[in-house]
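Retro notes (design track)

What went well: tokenization of the new backbones is finally stable.
What didn't: we kept losing track of which sequence belonged to which structure.
Fix going forward: every design gets posted as structure first, then sequence, in one message. First example under the new rule, 130 residues:
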């Protein structure tokens, strides 16, 4: 089955925007810091999956590791970006697997991580193919 790359890219970019908005709401309105970072991770993941679709011309894999998705999407990461993605992977696992005990991030730390995620998402936006 042929993949419509533009449709896939739009799907992931729209989902990333929604996930980021939800992350903001969780921290701003509800003060749920750990869950907010789970949703920030999801926004990053969806952005990277748009790159994977663009690069491979295929549906993105069911994979959540941000570093691996960047690799598949041919995005060269600086060491500090790899470290940030690994940190965000930590919050994905915390939010996705019950029973894991991780320290709750502070409000300041949460806001810093979300702002950093936003910067990366906005810098990674890709235009649709014509």
């Amino acid at each position: 089955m042929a993949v419509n790359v533009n449709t896939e890219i739009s799907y992931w970019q729209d989902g990333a925007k929604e996930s980021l908005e939800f992350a903001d709401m969780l921290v701003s309105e509800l003060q749920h810091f750990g869950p907010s970072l789970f949703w920030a991770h999801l926004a990053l993941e969806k952005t990277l999956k748009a790159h994977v679709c663009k690069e491979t011309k295929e549906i993105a894999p069911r994979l959540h590791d941000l570093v691996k998705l960047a690799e598949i999407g041919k995005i060269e990461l600086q060491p500090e970006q790899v470290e940030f993605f690994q940190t965000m992977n930590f919050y994905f696992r915390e939010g996705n697997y019950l029973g894991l005990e991780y320290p709750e991030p502070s409000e300041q730390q949460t806001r810093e991580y979300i702002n950093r995620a936003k910067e990366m998402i906005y810098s990674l936006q890709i235009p649709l193919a014509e």
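Added context from the reviewer: The domain at 5-124 is CATH 1.20.120.330 (Four Helix Bundle (Hemerythrin (Met), subunit A)).
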